[in-house]
Amino acid sequence: MTPPPGRRRRIGSAPTPSFPRRGSVRRAQVITTYGVGAMVAVDNESFIVSGIDSWNMSDAPTIDEHRLARTLGVRAFRLPPASDDTSKDGVRVRRFPLWHSCPECNALQHVRGFNSPPGKNMCGLCEEELVPSRFVMACAHGHIDDFPYWKWAHRGNRGEGKSGFCGGEMRMRSSGKTASLRSVLISCTCGIPEVSMEGAFRRRSLSELKVGCSGKRPWLKDAPDEICSERPRTLQRGSSVAWQPIMRTALSIPPWSGNLAKRLTPHWDKLRQFDRGNLGAYLDALETASNHRFPLSQVIALLDAEKQEDSGEEGEQHRSSAYVALRKQEYARLVEGNPESTADPDDRFICEPPRSSTSVLVPYGVVDPMLVKRLREVRALKAFSRVDTPDTQADVHEAALSLKELDWLPAMEVQGEGVFLRLDERKLDDWAKNVKVAARVERIRANHLHLLRERAKDPAVVPDSPATPRMVLLHTLAHVLINEWSLDGGYPSASLRERLYADDAMSGLLIYTATSDSAGSLGGLVAQGEPNRLEPALRSALRRAQWCSADPLCVESEASGAGSINLAACHACVLLPETSCEHNNGLLDRALLIGTPEDPSTGFFHHLLDD
């Protein structure tokens, strides 16, 4: 379960002379916002979160999710540590960036040059609190370092010395005329002309100064500098691309969603070593030691399920990754269901059909909707990236969370509920044969492939784009439904999430409220899935999608969004908070729902909007 609201995760360990406490954030934020390698502003100071090999995890709870753990190659997941005034656990941080400026005397230098009093971060002369550098440089491989102020200020003055030192002292001030970079001025007492920071964010600005990537990884203690040929970029310290989490998620589904699988988490390695004849004696010993029941038949069923999943992954290895196989298992279970009447009382996955007739949904092509009354999701932080956003299928570099090989990853678990919708595959296939539908999706697909080629480590090996008529339609439908339920059902749109199941064998979407707070976990979303509520919601969402305040520019757009991987989609119609979307608000086209003014038949639901 998620931690109680009163217990908060602290940045830094318990208050000791060597590791003073520096601040606090919620446990969930260590996975989503302030994870390993991210910069955290605490009062007037800035720190970078250290690697997980430096965390004190003595009291951190273990999270079980067998399927996801095997996919990521770890034994288990750990909840980020929470500390109070008496505990010793905590997450370590290190000061970064190291270059600071004084708002009084305008001195700009390494923090050690200010001669600060012990335990304080202030200018030794002015006794003013220092301001961490607003600017850093980072590369797409995750390396990060201080901005090269000396080289920036002395560009074009090569006679002052090539080593990076001229004997002068750097100064930073703001002219106050504007809020732009032109007003941030850098000077040196060696006599060079004062220069502004304007132009520092150009893609080639640092390479023109012959500044290469330093290969530094300040979040990892004693990490050696790596040789890196990537071109560094100037970033704002608080920029969203300065740290992007790479997370992997999974739903708990039978047979792994019961308490039996949870209790067996520490024992899986030993269980696999026993044959059926000796397994009973080992389970008897476990029952005696733990005072819990371990029925032999149920344990054998779990072991058989694990072997079956392994054999399935081996057979699909050339077509899909093990992570995609997790989605296929979830889809099969969502279609099959797990009724509350037959499930164990402690099962964390309850999924059953609505009580009323679904005939009103037939015109929409919706078949067999399911109400997910109980749902648990585990979100694990696998790695992180910088500069490049980890878009759908993009081959971004994954920066490591640790120098050591550890058998766990930081993760969080959330409880919620949801509605699962599936569209008729025959109707989808017939609609996808429309030439104009194929042309629109091909335009999205071509732009997405171009983006993937730009980011690929090896241009000869480019991942395929998932953009198909079926996928883009399901994705856009999920967005308009989330927007509709946020208006009609009273949910904040950021508290609703989508989970797409779209390939040749899947045609479903799950909208759910898996959040770490209290928004939407009391049955409200499940009630929206009843046909007498779902049909009006679908009709209203589609009618709302017919018109955007940015039309006709929106619906006639040839390309939109980051990387031009959207068509008719903007913030005024179908875009969502990024935490709600699996694909960073990409691969969307409202016209596939309702058609275009020139050709309404492009829309899958156009026949419902004629009146």
Total number of helical segments? 15
How would the global form be characterised?
Answer: globular
What is the percent of helical residues?
Answer: 10-25%
Radius of gyration: 27 Å
Runs in which pLDDT lies below 50 for 5 or more consecutive residues are 1-10, 12-17, 159-163, 312-320
Q: How would a textbook summarize the main sheet?
A: 8 strands, mixed
Report the structural category: alpha+beta
The fraction of residues in strands falls at 15-25%
Number of strands: 22
Span of the ends, CA to CA: 48 Å
Average predicted local confidence, pLDDT: 85
Give keywords.
single chain, 611 residues, alpha+beta, eight-stranded mixed sheet, three-stranded antiparallel sheet, 15 helices, globular, disordered N terminus
3D architecture notes:
- It is a single chain.
- With 611 residues, the chain is of the alpha+beta class.
- The chain has helices at 29-32, 66-72, 149-153, 205-208, 259-263, 268-271, 276-290, 296-315, 322-336, 425-432, 435-455, 469-488, 524-528, 531-545, 591-594, and strands at residues 9-11, 23-25, 39-42, 45-49, 62-63, 76-78, 93-95, 99-101, 108-110, 131-132, 135-138, 144-146, 170-174, 184-188, 195-196, 233-236, 244-251, 350-352, 366-385, 408-423, 497-503, 506-512.
- Strands 5, 6, 17, 18, 19, 20, 21 and 22 form an 8-stranded mixed beta sheet that branches. The chain has a 3-stranded antiparallel beta sheet with strand order 3-4-7, with no helix packed on it.
- α12 crosses α14.
- The longest helix has 21 residues, at 435-455.
- The chain is globular and about 80 Å long.
